[in-house]
Structures are given as structure tokens and as C-alpha cells.
Write a structure and sequence with these properties.
Blueprint lengths: L1 H21 L3 E2 L7 H4 L7 E9 L7 H16 L17 H17 L5 E7 L3 E9 H31 L3 H15 L8 E4 L3 E4 H15 E5 L3 E5 L8 E7 L9 E2 L4 E8 L5 E5 L5 E4 L10 E8 L1 H5 L6 H7 L7 E9 L2 E10 L2 E2 L4 H13 L2 E2 L8 E11 L8 E14 L5 E15 L2 H25 L4
Parallel strand pairs: 1-3, 8-15, 16-18, 16-19
Antiparallel strand pairs: 2-4, 3-4, 5-6, 7-9, 9-10, 9-13, 11-12, 11-14, 14-15, 16-17, 19-20, 20-21
Helix pairs in contact: 4-9, 5-6, 6-7, 10-11
């Protein structure tokens, strides 16, 4: 009988506790401000988060805003302690990367937060408050279990990447190392040590990062030519071949071709348009069959570069991942100079300084040099030239400004280009009364005026010529 009474009392106690648990959320009367609103509580065994939102007659989402603010507050209480073995210690000097990591980690904690409970809520006519709490022990247990599962998944990709690397399939090796990183990227501050069947005890973050960097460092891109000579606005009829090879000098391994590697060809000097994405073949070659040079620039440059965006895939959208793996200095590339033979031109210069024919022809010769660098190939024979470039410049003395001890000089300049076949003028431009001034004497003012006039020609007239279709 006594035993039955004990069992009955135990049953009543269990029911009471269950009812007590179900009544954990406390709704406070609107006219009574709860203690947790006026003074933040201290709970050693719990992380807490308190959030508030203003009520508005036009809005009914104040509850979700208050809850979101409370969760943000809760996350801020979970301190981010970077493990001593974390790969992030390799980037102590990169402040921007570390700041991005902090933001990234806080977002990750909030997105994956589990086990928190609504402890209380309160509101009046103007405000709505929410109080969340999360057991520190529960959080630690859930995090440890999840981290163990994550490390195992990452390790499987890491081991597969190592197999590809051993078989000299470096493109797939990088892809699988990045897959392994993608699994752990939200846990870079944590202890990522694990036992690898092939490498023994490793830190996944550090090992994955260093493995990718080693492959990138050992990939070489070599073009079949350093310079390419072409005629203006004509296709390049000689294939540009860039060979990708892998050579680990430290390990004493021989050079091997890198197949199925995505390369991107672009112009990095000059204004020609080129954006070709080519995959290396079985011999490690990426072949650019033709590239039309449409710019008037005399010297241009093609760059072949590992297409890191193609390799990163969706990871390129992730700021932290792209900062870690897309460092410009780490990406293999090579460059091919393209020298363009422009139209042949004959130059006529008429230049006078203060009414006297100029011996130096400062403006005219400066203009000729600029055209030679960017547009024309000059000849001393009018008969051999496609066009004739004429420049006529004269300088005159202006008024001496005695008050400021300034001498003023004016420049008049006319430029025209004649098509030698049709004798038609195909370009005309110029300026008058362009002013230069300087102290001491007119010679100093003359030099100032000439320099400014030449700069005006470079900045305004030469770009116009570049856009013409001769």
C-alpha cells in the first residue's frame, strides 16, 4: 500500500514538472515592466538575448523584428574564440580578411543556431520585447557533434583530392580540395584537427589551403611566343598556344602537362576586345586560334591566366572564400606582347616661335612621337606613305603682367591628315590663343606654353585619332 502511494506521488511530481516546463514562456502584463526589460539578467549557465521593436500603426511585423534583434543579441554573447591551430593565423596581417571572417562567422552562428528557447515576452502600446536563452552546455554539445560530422565529410573530399593530385589530375585535385573547404568554411575558427589515413593527424583548414596554394604555385603557363607581330585590324593568323605544366621542384618531380585546366585570354594593354575561355587539352595546351586586333594602339598585350572564377564556381560568390583563394599573386599567368604595324605616315611640320622658324619644332616632334608610339609607322617618303600628317604651330608674345612678373605666350595650332590616295582631308582639328605663362622672361613662358599645348594634343586630339577608321 505504501509502495502504491509512493508511485502515485512520483507520478504527480512528474506531471507537475511537465506542466511547469510547458509554462516556461511568461507573458507579462502590459502595465508591469518586467525586471529583465529594465535590467539585463545575469545567467551563468545560459547565453541570453533580449530584443525590442517599436510598434507602428502601419506595421504588424514588430514581433519578428524583436525576435531577430534578440537572436542577434544572443549570437553576440557567443564569443568567437579562434583555435590556436586555425588556418586564420596565417593571415594575421590581413585586417580586411579577419574582419570579413568575424562577420561571416557571426552570420553562420545565427543561421545554424539550435536549442535556444523563448523565455519571456512583453509589450505595451509602444514597444514589444523578447527574451531568449540558450543553455551553454547544450550549445557546446550540439556544436561538438555537428563539427565532428562536418570534419568527416570534409576529410572524404580531402582524401579524394589527394588521390587526384597523386595521379597528376591537378584540375580535379583543386576542385575537390575546394569541395572539402566548402564543407568547413563556416567553422574556420574551430579546432579542425582530424586523423587522415594518408597524412596522419592534420588540421583540415590549414592542410586544404596549403594544398591548393602548392598546386597553384607549381603550375606554369608558357606561351609558344613572347611577341606577335600583326598588321592593324587584321586577324592573327598564327595560333597562340599556351602550355600548362606542373613541376614540383622541391619534390624533384619532372614537369607534367596539366589537362582540362580552364584558362582565360584577355587583352590587358590596348583597347582591343578579347575574352576567350579555353580548356587545356591532353597535352596541356590551350590554343587561341585567332584574335582580331581592332585597336589603333601600336603595342598591346594578351594575357593568358588560370580562370580562377571557373574553378571556384559558386565559391566565388562567397567573399571570404574568394579572398582566401583568389589572390592575384597566386594565380598562374603569362603574357604575349602584340606589336601592331600601323599605317605608314609622312609628317610635315611647320613651327615658328615669335615669328622665327623653330629649329627644335618642340610641339611638332612631340606630336610625331606620340603618333609613332600609338598609331602610325612613319616613313621619310611621301610616296610610300598611306597618309600625310600636317601640323602647323606658331607662338606669339602676349602682355607682360608687371604686377605679378609674369610673361604670357599664346599658341595657335592646326592639325590635318590627308589620304595620299584620294588626296582628301580625313581629319582636321586645332586650337588658337592657348596660353602659357611664366616668370623671368618670354623664353620660360614659351617652354610652358609648348608643354601645355603638347599635353592638350595628347589628351584631346590623339584619342580622337585613335577612334578614326582610316
Amino acid at each position: 500500500m505504501i509502495k502504491k502511494i509512493h508511485l502515485l506521488l512520483l507520478a504527480v511530481f512528474i506531471i507537475f514538472q511537465a506542466c511547469k516546463t510547458q509554462q516556461a514562456v511568461v507573458e507579462q502584463p502590459a502595465n508591469t515592466i518586467p525586471q529583465w526589460v529594465s535590467s539585463r539578467p545575469v545567467m551563468n549557465d545560459y547565453y541570453i538575448g533580449i530584443g525590442m521593436a517599436k510598434k507602428s500603426g502601419m506595421s504588424d511585423n514588430y514581433i519578428s523584428i524583436a525576435r531577430n534583434n534578440a537572436l542577434n543579441d544572443l549570437v553576440s554573447e557567443i564569443s568567437i574564440k579562434i583555435s590556436g591551430n586555425s588556418m586564420l593565423y596565417q593571415f594575421e596581417n590581413k585586417t580586411e580578411l579577419k574582419e570579413e571572417f568575424k562577420t561571416y562567422t557571426n552570420t553562420s552562428i545565427k543561421e545554424n543556431l539550435e536549442g535556444y528557447e523563448l523565455s519571456a515576452s512583453w509589450g505595451n502600446d509602444n514597444e514589444y520585447w523578447v527574451f531568449y536563452k540558450l543553455s551553454k552546455k547544450l550549445y557546446a554539445d550540439l556544436k561538438a557533434k555537428k563539427l565532428e560530422d562536418i570534419k568527416k565529410r570534409s576529410l572524404s573530399f580531402y582524401e579524394k583530392a589527394g588521390e587526384y593530385e597523386e595521379n597528376a589530375d591537378y584540375n580535379n585535385a583543386i576542385l575537390f580540395y575546394l569541395k572539402a573547404f566548402d564543407v568547413i568554411k563556416k567553422h574556420l575558427a574551430d579546432e579542425l584537427n582530424i586523423f587522415s589515413p594518408t597524412k596522419g593527424s592534420i588540421n583540415l583548414g590549414t592542410e586544404i589551403y596549403n594544398s591548393v596554394q602548392k598546386i597553384l604555385h607549381n603550375i606554369r603557363l608558357r606561351p609558344n611566343m613572347d611577341k606577335l607581330f600583326v598588321s592593324l585590324s587584321t586577324p592573327i593568323n598564327k595560333d597562340i598556344v599556351v602550355t600548362a605544366s606542373y613541376q614540383d621542384v622541391k619534390a624533384g618531380k619532372m614537369s607534367t602537362p596539366v589537362t582540362t585546366l580552364p584558362l582565360r585570354f584577355t587583352f590587358v594593354k590596348g583597347k582591343s576586345v578579347l575574352d576567350e575561355k579555353i580548356i587545356t587539352n591532353a597535352g596541356g595546351d590551350a590554343i587561341l586560334s585567332t584574335a582580331k586586333v581592332t585597336n589603333k594602339g601600336k603595342v598591346q598585350q594578351i594575357r593568358a591566366k588560370l580562370d580562377i572564377e571557373a574553378i571556384l564556381g559558386d565559391l566565388i560568390k562567397d567573399k571570404l572564400s574568394s579572398q582566401l583563394f583568389a589572390f592575384e599573386s597566386n594565380i598562374p599567368e603569362c603574357k604575349i606582347t602584340v606589336e601592331v604595324e600601323g599605317k605608314k605616315a609622312f609628317m610635315e611640320i611647320e613651327e615658328s616661335d615669335f615669328g622665327i622658324p623653330s629649329q627644335r619644332k618642340t610641339i611638332g616632334n612631340g606630336f610625331k612621337k606620340e603618333l609613332s608610339d600609338k598609331l602610325f609607322s612613319f616613313t621619310e617618303s611621301r610616296q610610300k606613305a598611306d597618309v600625310t600628317v600636317k601640323i602647323s604651330c606658331k607662338t606669339t608674345k602676349g602682355t607682360y603682367l608687371e604686377k605679378n612678373d609674369l610673361y604670357v605666350v599664346f599658341v595657335d595650332c592646326e592639325i590635318s591628315i590627308i589620304d595620299n590616295k584620294t588626296e582628301a582631308e580625313i581629319f582636321s582639328n586645332g586650337f588658337t590663343n592657348f596660353k602659357g605663362m611664366q616668370i623671368r622672361d618670354y623664353e620660360n613662358a614659351l617652354k610652358d606654353a609648348q608643354q601645355k599645348a603638347l599635353q592638350k594634343i595628347k589628351d584631346e586630339i590623339v584619342p580622337e585619332l585613335n577612334n578614326l577608321d582610316f
